[in-house]
Amino acid sequence: MTHRGTARKTAALGAAAIMALVHGACAADGVSLQTVVIEGVAYKPAALTVKRGDRVKWINKDPFPHTVTAPGSFGSHSIAAGGTWTHVMRRSGTIAYACTLHPNMNGTLQVQ
Ligand SMILES: [Cu+2]
Question: In this structure, what DSSP letter does residue 100 have?
Answer without folding.
Answer: S
